[in-house]
Amino acid sequence: MFFIFGIGPKTKVIQKSQFVCPVCRSRSAYELKQQRNYFSLFFIPLIPLSKAKGEFVTCLNCGMTMPSTVLNHAQSN
Ligand SMILES: [Zn+2]
């Protein structure tokens, strides 16, 4: 009986909305993602090993990934 296990990051989309992208400077859809390391068995992530490493935003227009703090800037005006 083999056990295949490992530790790896898993990315989860926690929010989808729109923002004004600071890179391509147009109103586009974004995905807010969160990354965590998981202990996985048979390639199924089972146990979260750490607190969320942080959130980041991917602009679906230009594909650029940036820190989630850009959302605070975008919403403050
Ligand atoms: Zn963009």
Overview of this structure, please?
This protein is mainly beta. It has one domain (5-75). The chain has one helix at 69-75; strands spanning 5-20, 27-41, 44-48, 55-59, 65-67. A hairpin with a 2-residue loop joins strand 2 and strand 3. It is elongated and about 55 Å long. The model has no long low-confidence stretch (mean pLDDT 87). The chain binds zinc ion. InterPro entries: Zinc_ribbon_15. This is Zinc-ribbon domain-containing protein. Residues 20-68 form the Zinc-ribbon domain.
Entry keywords:
binds zinc ion; about 80 residues; five-stranded antiparallel beta sheet; about 55% strand; mainly beta
Poorly predicted regions are none
> Can you write the helix and strand succession as a string?
EEEEEH
Measure the end-to-end span: 59 Å
Number of strands: 5
- Biggest sheet record: 5 strands, antiparallel
The domain count comes to: 1
Beta-strand proportion: over 45%
Rounded average pLDDT: 87
The level of helicity is: under 10%
Ligand identities: zinc ion
Q: Please tally the helical runs, counting DSSP H or I stretches of 4 or more residues.
A: 1
Please compute the radius of gyration using only Cα atoms.
16 Å
Tertiary shape: elongated
How do you describe this structure in short?
This protein has 77 residues and is mainly beta.
Give the SSE map:
Elements: E1 5-20, E2 27-41, E3 44-48, E4 55-59, E5 65-67, H1 69-75
Antiparallel strand pairs: 1-2, 2-3, 2-4, 4-5
